[in-house]
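Prompt: I keep going back and forth on a fold encoding question. Comparing notes only helps if you start from a blank page. Show me how you would write down a chain together with its backbone fold. Please set it down just below, with no commentary around it:
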Amino acid sequence: MMKINPRLKEQIEQDILACKNHTQIKDSENLYNTLVSRYSVLDREFEKGLTYNLKAVVVGSEFDYRPALSAIVAKLETYLLLAEQDEYNEFRKSPKSINELLSEDILRCEQYINNPVDIELGREIYIEITGRYDGIINDFGNGLYMYSERGHFYNPELSDHSLLHNLKVLCQRMIAYRANNYSIEENKKQKPNNSRKAEYDVFISHANNDKTPYVERLKKSLDKLDISIFYDKDSLEWGDNWKNRILDGVNKAEFAIIVISENFFGREWTEKELNEFLNRQNANGQKLILPILYKITFEQLKEKYPSIADIQCIESSKLKFDEVALLFARQLIKRLKA
């Protein structure tokens, strides 16, 4: 593991940005070769696990190295997370731990495995996790289809069946690695501080398309309780960095009411909020997530988000808004009494 000092950290962040911004095939090979040359000096095995397939759109044209750049992004981001705990670490301000990153990638794999419709999305996940964990998890690629141990090369041009098989295997390896290396220790570090005064009694997580038909009316009923609510429409102010404000609200809420509908599925930020709350709930073991099923069935929930299938839900069609608010008030009172 290379040592990350402030200057190298700045260079890594610049290179991550350069990869993300490089959306054209043109010069993608030059950028790839530059980064491999740069980081192979610091890590001799840097190029291992960088999944890519050399395809030219037109005979004689440049090869497309953009998938390899995505793999480099995953690897560099992981370097930052795994930086040694030394005097330079005061400069590291990553919002995630490696345990949280593992949890996110495991959830992404599980979601694709349960609904393997978009093969390009599956390949994107495959490229990122192989680039990220090949150098961290021993024998990560062993036994996979179209994997070459020499050079740790993962070919993403897999059939639907082969891709699904590989992702299932890798998902289990990530779960095992997390359990053996991070979950227990990080759970000890993240025991809940029951004396903590949450800034918000509840965070309402929802898809924007559900605001008018349901969430706005639910919010009005919750307002009658005279409690502190993080609701994006009211909580975000002019000039705010909305991403930072939302994540801050996620971390400072006592509960999360999550309105899950078909509009919720597959949205970047609704799923990110859900994942953040799952990480918090799993870390401290305290009830946090209060799901409401809005115009979907429990079977749909189970198919899309198996990680919360064991959490008791309520159905929007069976309760009036004030009844939902009353149920929440009871949960809040129990928490305050504890």
